[in-house]
Specification:
The protein has six helices and 17 strands. It has 296 residues and is an alpha/beta fold. The chain has one domain: Purple Acid Phosphatase, chain A, domain 2 (4-Layer Sandwich). The strands form two sheets. Strands 1, 2, 3, 4, 11, 12, 13, 14, 15, 16 and 17 form an eleven-stranded mixed beta sheet that branches. The protein is globular. The relative contact order is 0.18.
Amino acid sequence: MTLMIAGTASRSSAHLHFEETRELWLGGDVNLGDGGRGQLNGISGIVQGAVGIVNLEGPVAEQRQLKARGLQLWNSPSALKEISELNVKVAGIANNHSADAGPLGVKQTAKELRARAIMPASGPAGAALLKLNGISIAVTAHDLTRGVPPGLAADLAAARRQADVLVTTFHVTGPPSYLPRPELKRAVEIAYRAGAHVIAAHGTHALGPVERREHAVIAWGLGNVAFACRCTNEQDALLLRVRVAPGGAVRAEVLPIQAGINGGPAAMNPDPAGIFDLLEAIGSSKLERKGSVAEF
């Protein structure tokens, strides 16, 4: 599959009036543990009030609720305040750590998120449906740890029928790599054929290429936003900021960040040009650089 589709970008929607569009930001993996360490403090100025979508790695639970084997992740209920303050309205809970507090932990996670006006998105929970000033946006989340789910195409087709805009996210596990895994390539093709307008992946903790393909924008790897567990050292990451309208993405921007890991706060990457060079070297669509932000 060719990742670089430079020149096929459809920006014909740019004539739409501003009031007909809505702005979203998408981030990768978020794990806050007990929270309260300020790992997300540096993000608020970057996302500039857009509605946020992230992957919540691990259940909402207390550490004592975790199963006593292997690497276990959790997010204390009190830590969710840090996420909601970033205007996150949807949290994907389809990942390889979602059941670390047992089978009931997934239901508890969804309940805790809803109590804070954050909609859960996953295979079992279905699509999260946002209404932003008259535009309906469906957000889906699927875990690819065991491969592409057999019902993926049907799930996405159903979600697309419910909304003006479909945002599809995938969680994929494996060693950190700039290039997408085979199961992710297959899932992205299914999502694109289903009419997804925004497709984003996370899970390996590494950033990946960004692509503009006709009606869709694709982020092949967002990396981490913040990770309390000292189990990843991948700090280079991306935020995707997208202005959407019925029928597609009007504008897409990529913002390089340094993830909040090992106790440090997330922040803008001090060398965005270096990240943009890397993105283009690994097959991204042509980037229109504007300082610390690049449009594609």
